Amino acid sequence: MQVLFPEIKPYKRHQLKVSETHEVYLDEAGNTDGIPVLFVHGGLRPGCDASSRRSSVPQLLRLITLDQRGFGRTT
Question: Cα 67 to the chain's mean position, in Å?
Answer without folding.
Answer: 7
